[in-house]
Structures
1.
Amino acid sequence: MSPRSGPARRAGGKALRLHGSIARTIGIAIVSGRHRPGDLLGGEISSSARFAVSRTAYREAVRILAAKGLVNARPKVGTRISPRSEWHLLDPEVLAWMFESEPDPELLNSLFELRRVVESAAAGIAARRRTPAHLRDLRGALDAMAAHTLATEAGRQADMDFHGTLLRATENPFIVSLTKGVSAAIGASTVFKQRKGPLDRDPMPEHRRVYQAVAARDARRAERAMSELIVLARRDTPSSRARRRR
Amino acid sequence: MSPRSGPARRAGGKALRLHGSIARTIGIAIVSGRHRPGDLLGGEISSSARFAVSRTAYREAVRILAAKGLVNARPKVGTRISPRSEWHLLDPEVLAWMFESEPDPELLNSLFELRRVVESAAAGIAARRRTPAHLRDLRGALDAMAAHTLATEAGRQADMDFHGTLLRATENPFIVSLTKGVSAAIGASTVFKQRKGPLDRDPMPEHRRVYQAVAARDARRAERAMSELIVLARRDTPSSRARRRR
DNA sequence: CCCGCCATTTACTCAGACAAATTGCCACAT
DNA sequence: ATGTGGCAATTTGTCTGAGTAAATGGCGGG
């Protein structure tokens, strides 16, 4: 079995270089649990041989993984997978890699929990700071969502645009930097939903309520509406039936 | 002027390798604004010569920066600094680099805004999920803070431990993954505070109120107490007097 | 039983060459 | 004049092989 197959492409669609695709392969193996924290990754010579690439390319891949907190390389010790508490879980690529394989339901709940916290607050902030331009973009995304539905790629993109625009409207760079990660989560989990047959519930009403609150500059109502939206989205996601912790 | 000076050490204290210290040098130049988005970074041959290292080491440094969303390298085009919206601002290292030079006051406000949102909610969640062990750790950090005060390194470490333990008590891996970044922000901004003379206000009361609410499993009160704590911390930070946006 | 030296293993750095990709120019046809 | 195809130059990407530096674990001496 060859570890890689053809020119891998990232979510954005851009072709990945050799080092990038190797980082992706190993990264997925790590976040999916196929390699566990504390495990060693094998020497550079043997690993690069296993991937049929030069040590240079393999080392650059390791650098990428180390930059995302997934591994830790030291002479004489080897390249060890870091404990999960070290992982940069909100890194867009790490998040995307998690959705490449069926993600742990527990982890999915945690992600929705954080989204509920951050995006609700973001909706409230956006209600206060939004410009007419933001409002126009939100309306555009909403229209596109309604036109294409979440069953199409264009519809899912519009959904992501809606959430992305809302985060951008906060004018808070740190909140904006979560956009890519949130989009990855939305895109992937929406695909999950559709997998078990088409969605029966119409997701538009709660989206419209968020928009209306933001348009009315009603921060409190925007927060509540977004909180509700995310609770509903979690309910629609199949693995949400898994046990809650404790 | 030589671009690097001696064996650079990251916040954690571990000695940095060549590629790591170069990534740090360039990374600081980027987040501090000395290089601006859209700028090119110069060819690999000339850049590696400027740092007096091999192309290999320089390229690995670029891979690190690219993994954090700071730059984007393409053949024939060069290595271009990405727009700030692409930066992984919550990456612990990026955050630490931002505090290496005086950070933009506007950005500092944004960071406090996000901390207020996330840490308040985290306090509420922690109030529901905390175990006796978490409580013991919180108490330990509190005692250490009181004993050493924020004027000492040990006291600042205790402060960071308090916030870290609280985030850990949420049992939410995504929230936990923010710990390192939050610590970097706390450590650096606390040093700023002290710079203009010793702090006159005692930060212990609001910390104790958070602890008591978490101990009492009172989520609502924990949220409010943490929100208050962060507002006070922002007030103590010198640049907080800078204009709010718009 | 503890402490410091030393050998070994591993990642790290270097140098030089060649390959691949992307751009922009330029000739050519329309 | 304008669009279109391919060619050439530039830059990052990949490969090879060699040598360096760091961290560990054992060994010997205290």
Note: Confidence is low (pLDDT under 50) at residues 1-6, 242-246 of chain B.
2.
Amino acid sequence: MKVIPQRAASIGAQVHQQLRDAIVRAELTPGTALSEAEIAARYLVSRQPVREAFIRLAQEDLVEIRPQRGTFVKRIVMDDVLDARFVREAIEVAVAREAAGKADAAAIARLQATLATQAVATSNAEFLAADEAMHREIAVIAGRESAWRVVDQIKAQMDRVRYLSYIDVSPAQRLIAQHSEIVEAIAAHDANAAEAAVRAHMAEILQQLPELARRYPEMFEGS
Amino acid sequence: MKVIPQRAASIGAQVHQQLRDAIVRAELTPGTALSEAEIAARYLVSRQPVREAFIRLAQEDLVEIRPQRGTFVKRIVMDDVLDARFVREAIEVAVAREAAGKADAAAIARLQATLATQAVATSNAEFLAADEAMHREIAVIAGRESAWRVVDQIKAQMDRVRYLSYIDVSPAQRLIAQHSEIVEAIAAHDANAAEAAVRAHMAEILQQLPELARRYPEMFEGS
DNA sequence: GTGATCTAACTTGTATGGTAGTATAGCAGT
DNA sequence: ACTGCTATACTACCATACAAGTTAGATCAC
């Protein structure tokens, strides 16, 4: 049993986490102007930790810091989302292939458990959490958990879109069916089938994007 | 002709760039203790920008900030390098396949030009710059330049190893031969050959790692 | 009315002082 | 010689003050 290395996170880290969640969940809508002083007042802290949180967010491409002008929640750039999708597909395909080769009975059971959780999810956030848990679990099975950290970063851009689209465009049932195919392929140790299933799943967002850009134009960059 | 949007970068950004280069080039060796005050004194700036540079570096996994203890150049973790390699291979394979489909005569000429540059490189840094230019060019040809930004981040971990190994382990000639195969496959619009060539190239580091860990044990994490 | 200009209210960037936590060297008591 | 406490010299972290730049609006000249 390890001694608790868990200390209270720094204020800057906490602010970063809060803002990141808010941006990904589209509570802070694209284009919104943030200001160090305003956020600092809201959280009753000084400007410095807030500033550091902004720097972190800027490095994740979630905000844009314009010197002496302001900091803004980045608008969704269609090309960026498409490139994020491309990279994510490349990584997740490779991960799924490895997982298909390494999955044992216990691992398969864990995957099926997440599928069940998705089926009974009653809210958008709940479903997306189970969704993410499944994808991460696949990475763990493949022994590439740290590869998931990369996907997690990339994914943020896509998730912003997903939070807009879950209710409207893609019914959960459809996504669960796709997930189910991935799990079955891994359970059957069929790498090729796993790859095909992942690619089909990753194609989903391609169909959503045009519709979303039409419906929420103010959240997208005109570029 | 665009008006110069280039303004002097902030001090924090400059310090970040300098330190990042120094770490990747192994001038700042793994395990070295950095301190806000020390670096600030060295560059004749205040501690705050230095602190912000540290935060950026920490997010890139190049340093580790231990609260109230110090900030240290991260030691090279074998597993992290292997995972970085895995992710990079997945992305670069996908990029190369697309490039094979899209390359026109001008693009192929540009690739061959970088090959020539590599052949006449007289220093480690010079060769690595040409190497990087070629890989980025492939991404540009594929129309996935922003995907390269992801690789660039991942690659930092691998580059730290490469700066140790260039002279000792992998002769440039061997790498150039591998690069040449990649270019030929793309020029022939043969996606499968391009994939195979990239995978072979990415396997190179696997052979170097054990030897390097043996030779420079103090730069690696015992974990 | 129209246009240029100045001012005031923002913004981010930098410097500095102080705080809390950690590690270490040295001294005290065995 | 060895153990345990204490003072001290670090560290990152946070708050505050100041500087430099941008922008929007009021004001003044025409």
Note: The radius of gyration of chain B is 19 Å.
